[in-house]
Amino acid sequence: MLKTTIQGFVTAVKGLLLTVRHLFGAKKSRQSFDIRKADYFDKQEGVTTVQFPKEKMPIPEVARYQLHVEIDDCIVCDLCAKACPVDCITIESIKSPVPIGNTSDGSVKRLYAAQFDIDMAKCMYCGLCTVVCPTECITMTNQYDRSSTKLTDLIYSFAEMTEEEIAQRKAEWTRFQAEKEAAKQK
User: Fold this and answer.
1) Of 61, 31, 63, 57, which Cα lies nearest the Cα of 44?
2) Phi/psi at 18 (nearest 5 deg)?
3) Which of 101, 95, 98 is nearest to 170 (CA)?
4) How many Cα atoms within 13 Å fall on the side-chain side of residue 123?
5) Rounded to whole angstroms, how far apart are CA atoms 171 and 175?
6) What are the residue ranges of helices labelled H in the chain?
7) Other beta carbons within 10 Å of 150
8) What's the predicted TM-score (pTM) here?
9) How far apart are CA 73 and CA 92, in angstroms?
10) Cα–Cα nearest to 94, from 112, 77, 81
11) CA quadruple 60, 62, 63, 67: dihedral sign
């Protein structure tokens, strides 16, 4: 019992000495180093953290940060919202009676995006939405330093339709459906 107590005390003192040595070492020789240099991690004396406004960590090409949607390439298939495990993507589509255009990869667009919102406060940055997108319109960017004091500021809306356009497109679809039903009745 006494041996275990002494061993615990010695271990605590060793850890405390290491912490105090690092604290005073960092205080006496704190400098700003360029993180892009190859020997950055060799210069550990005095540096405790990356000095964020002046320095930023290099971002790998496959990093997963802020989501971005190229709405002109979106076919509003809703696969990204279905794949999202935390339901941070909200999509509302309006059908069109005729094709409305093509995406950059040649896919035919038949739906209008009345609403395409991503709540980055809920997002867990898993990247599943980017994997399932058939037109690759939803991507992860290298933006990671967007912060806000209000959660509503973290809801990004990518749809470009106004309320009047939405009402007009819904009326067009309703009229098309009514004409289709009338043609069946005859």
Assistant:
1) 31
2) -65, -45
3) 95
4) 25
5) 6
6) 2-28, 79-83, 128-132, 163-185
7) 8
8) 0.69
9) 16
10) 112
11) positive
| CA–CA distances in Å: residue 131 to residues 4, 33, 51 | 53, 37, 34
Q: Are 75 and 111 in contact (CB under 8 A)?
A: yes
List pLDDT tens digits, range 98-138.
Answer: 888 888 888 889 899 999 999 999 999 998 999 999 999 99
Query: Please, are residues 112 and 169 in contact by the beta-carbon 8 Å criterion?
Result: yes
Pick the closest to residue 98 from 109, 107, 85, 88 (CA basis).
Answer: 109
Half-sphere exposure of 102 (CA within 13 A, CB side): 4
Distance, in Å, from the CA atom of 154 to the CA atom of 147, rounded to the nearest integer, reads 8
Task: Check if the beta carbon of residue 166 is closer than 8 Å to that of residue 96.
Answer: no
- Chain-centre distance of CA 142, in angstroms? 9
Question: What was the pLDDT predicted at 64?
Answer: 80
Structure tokens at 151: 């959660």
> pLDDT tens digits, residue range 54-103?
777 777 777 788 899 999 899 999 999 999 999 999 999 999 888 888 88
Distance CA 163, CA 49 (A): 48
